[in-house]
Specification:
about 0% strand; 4 helices; about 140 residues; flat
Amino acid sequence: MLQGRGSVNKVTSLAAYGLLTMATEQSSMRPMRELLLQLPLLPITQDHRIDYEATDADLLLELADKAETVMNTINLGLSAVGTILAHASPEVGSEISGCTIEALGWHIAESADAAAALLSLAHACRHYTADYHPPQPKKAPMVTF
């Protein structure tokens, strides 16, 4: 019997709550997909680097928001998987093949690398839009009955 099962459920619930909270805070339900579809819109320089200065500021802000959301989702997921693995390891024994554990390890490594790359992208986007202030829509006055 797994002794810390209650704490695993609490951590998993907290991670799920964090993901749900992030989903309600943003207007996009598929930030990873949208981020990947918007990346080709970035202009590049002659030496194949992103030309942030030539990029539309609104696009940079959207990319930064989506990159941060995806990065947070990856990190919460990796944390949840790590917690589950740490608590389940005494019970697993030989029920899971070495190939499965290896595949999970590669998945974790690639996900962490993606999160690091997204951090760099978000940082660069925020840097190049630090002085940009998008126009704020004016609120319509309320009618009193």
